[in-house]
Design brief:
The chain contains eleven helices and 17 strands. By secondary structure, it is an alpha/beta fold. Helix 9 crosses helix 10. The chain starts with 9 loop residues before the first helix and ends in an 11-residue tail after the last strand. The N terminus is likely disordered.
Length: 374
């Protein structure tokens, strides 16, 4: 708009702002000044009035839509909370699996006009409450996205604390219940969460191997974790579904990769696979699967000729040689869904508890093939 163009009337400015919000998910005062040819004080007055009407939420430098303002628009348009601020996110690792979850969470937070305060913990941390307390007391933190350690003596204490800390929370890749008050006849109430259906991931892997003609298959899990337990449960269900019997498969749990006996355990597992005529294995997670392939090839065991290998996580499986067939959890979407749940909970504290389960996918690559003679 040029200096010679008259400024738009209030109703026209209002229509322009709403159209921009619907199209872009946000408006900036600086851009509106160029588009509409009006002073910033006029625009701020317009935005304040529209905020009072519940049409938008003012944030630094502009505005974002109020939740529900465009409920009738096509899917994919941003829906945002009614006030800006921060959410805190605590995950057990910043180096593997979780970075993709975090990136999804940050992208969704931006859509909602929120900022993510990120902290990494550790799978060895026994009690996350001190860290969470510091996060809750940070300025502007309005909710929590948390992946707590569920295998410690304080696990239930952390869940109870989250339920009572005064801000809403969403668990990510974790299941938990809030215990009832003493004397209550009701059982525990599941908390809001977003998880991957890891049991289904194991079923997808088993079906793929069975379709190739494998009958003797093995499951290798890296550690006793919520994910590995779900994978094992899905694997057992798949064995029943596909007609596999206990004598047709074996299950092994590996020590940490940093353990001095890790390679020896992998070698012993390969010996057991050969002794039991196992022709395919599912390994959780990618680095452990790579270790199996490396040691197998060093011993002259062909992959996939003698042994098909499916990795679980698909973080770096495609980069290996041979590229590994892998179950891929929707990590980015898990982060996005967790923040979306939290933002909607902030906007409407009375809405029913939501538990979201996302399906993984199977990416078939070069590490699986039909067994010899099939």
């Amino acid at each position: 708009m040029t200096d010679q163009t008259p400024a738009l009337l209030a109703a026209e400015r209002r229509a322009h702002v709403l159209a921009t919000l619907e199209r872009d998910g946000a408006v900036r005062v600086a851009q509106l000044m160029d588009d509409l040819g009006v002073a910033p004080v006029t625009l701020r007055r317009d935005l304040a009035q529209m905020e009072r009407e519940g049409l938008l939420v003012r944030v630094h430098g502009g505005a974002v839509p109020a939740a529900g303002a465009f409920d009738d628009v096509e899917p994919g348009h941003p829906v945002t909370v009614t006030r800006a601020g921060s959410i805190a996110m605590l995950v057990p690792s910043l180096s593997f699996y979780w970075p993709s979850v975090v990136r999804g969470a940050e992208a969704e937070a931006t859509r909602h006009g929120l900022r993510v305060v990120l902290r990494g913990a550790s799978y060895e941390l026994q009690d996350e409450r001190p860290v969470l307390e510091r996060l809750v007391h940070a300025d502007g933190v309005r909710g929590l996205v948390v992946a707590p350690n569920t295998d410690t003596p304080h696990a239930q204490d952390v869940v109870q604390w989250l339920a009572e800390c005064g801000v809403p929370s969403v668990l990510v890749e974790r299941d938990a219940v809030v215990l009832p008050d003493a004397g209550s006849l009701q059982g525990g109430s599941p908390v809001e969460n977003v998880t991957t259906d890891h049991a289904l991931g194991a079923v997808l892997a088993a079906r793929h191997l069975a379709a190739l003609g494998h009958r003797r298959v093995g499951l290798i899990i890296a550690r006793d974790s919520p994910t590995s337990r779900k994978i094992a449960a899905g694997w057992q269900a798949a064995c029943i579904e596909l007609g596999l019997t206990p004598s047709d498969h074996f299950e092994t749990s590996l020590p940490p990769r940093t353990s001095p006996d890790f390679s020896a355990v992998v070698d012993a597992t390969l010996d057991a696979a050969l002794a039991n005529s196992v022709t395919a294995i599912l390994v959780h997670s990618d680095p452990e699967a790579m270790a199996f392939v490396d040691l197998a090839l060093n011993r002259g065991i062909s992959v996939p000729g003698d042994l098909s290998v499916v990795a679980y996580d698909d973080e770096v499986a495609e980069l290996f040689t041979p590229a590994l067939t892998a179950v891929s959890p929707p990590r980015n979407s898990v982060g996005r869904a967790a923040v979306d749940l939290l933002a909607r909970r902030i906007e409407d504290p009375t809405r029913p508890v939501h538990r979201v389960v996302l399906n993984p996918t199977l990416n078939v690559r070069g590490s699986t093939a039909s067994p010899r003679g099939a």
